[in-house]
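[Q] Does anyone have a clean structure-token version of this?
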Amino acid sequence: MTGKTLLDIRGVHTFYGNIQALNGVDVTVNDGEIVALIGANGAGKSTLMMTIFGAPRARSGKIVFAGTDITQLPTHEIARLRIAQSPEGRRIFPRMTVLENLQMGASLDKMKHFDEDVEKVFVLFPRLKERIDQRGGTLSGGEQQMLSIGRALMARPKLLLLDEPSLGLAPLVVKQIFDAIRELNRTQGLTVFLVEQNAFGALKLATRGYVMVNGNVTMSGTGKQLLADPDVRAAYLEGGRH
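[A] Here you go.
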């Protein structure tokens, strides 16, 4: 069941120096939804994720989260509002153990609910419990992705931003990751904004989706509508089923 608007992105323009990466992007994520943003590599999807967090900052336009204008807020203040991110490339702390990585995620909440929350992460990703004392850098790619998502969940987010969670992973592991996202949304009502090159998997998972081409949102609709759209199928789905 989805509710009111949680994240509202309006007319956002983002630049790297003089190079424009986002060109007047409009995206809405409602409370309780899984929203997917698909597009080719270099379309601007990750830039939008990073712009939500203020690095890089939007040069113009507006980003509102839970009624608060976050467009000009520092990144650490945005995180305190209960937005958590699992960035592209996982970016865990490689020299820290699984447990220490999860403690870093919980530090925003001053570790108040650590024991309870870490158990939830271990139910979602039992492999992490088996690897609890292992250094992050020695985990497989799939385990690192689970740890990255787990660390983000330890901050008790209202909104989880996932940037390319399936990138470079075997199909079986991708299924595990997508099943976990579905379960979080179904059982905890967690709102998820998902950037994915795996368009088929992302749109099957999503309540709604957007298509980005060269820094512009060119299409939007329900996951089912976009999966059925001939243009989307031709551009992103041919041979892309996982």
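[Q] Thanks! Anything notable?
[A] The domain at 1-82+195-242 is CATH 3.40.50.300 (Rossmann fold).
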